[in-house]
Amino acid sequence: MPQKEKSVSLADQAYETIKTNILNMTYPPGMTLTESRLARDLGMSRSPVRTAIRMLQTEGLIVTDYYKSMTVKEITEKDIREIYQLRELLEGAAFRLIFTSGKNEEYSFRIEEKVVRMCAAASDIYAWEVADTAMHMEIVSVLENSRVDRIYENNLSELIRMGQFSVRNGMDIGRTNENLKKMVEFMRAGDYENAYAILREDHFTTGMDCALQFK
């Protein structure tokens, strides 16, 4: 294998591993990182790790201060409130459209598929939150708006980390999964009010309140 291809491959591996460790909170918000620490954790030389760091800095997951000290991006109270406000605005409009466009039965099955994956991941907070985020993206897909899709994709890392804050501070995965099953049943029955009440209570109100307790 040419040296250049090997280098790119190692950098990609480093990027994926470091990013996963940030998203699953192995490297929590505010943690100080160094090239030597990351190279040691990954069992790699500093060169591919340095490339991966630059990629993650571009994404905003790793930040550097005036003294060149690297840390995992913090999540502030303002971040949490803004993200949950954004979710409620977009998903609220999307959820209503699912019903007004007569797609509630179709989307009940599409969302149910994501809920099944959430139930299967119930013992792993990170995996469950990834599955939960996929469920929310399924809801906004009804808008068929590539700009909205990009907004969610651009905030995906924050959504996953904030969701884990919620679970670690009181949001009950088992109860949430059961409530989502009820939401699917209400969707299939064409009951918008009760279906949306579950989404709003569990995923906007309770989710945000629990996330705000992370400090």
TrEMBL record:
Protein name according to UniProt: GntR family transcriptional regulator
The HTH gntR-type domain, residue ranges: 8-75
PROSITE patterns attached to this UniProt entry: HTH_GNTR (PS50949)
Pfam families: FCD, GntR
Biological classification of the source: Bacteria, Bacillati, Bacillota, Clostridia, Lachnospirales
Species of the source: Faecalicatena fissicatena
Keywords: DNA-binding, Transcription, Transcription regulation
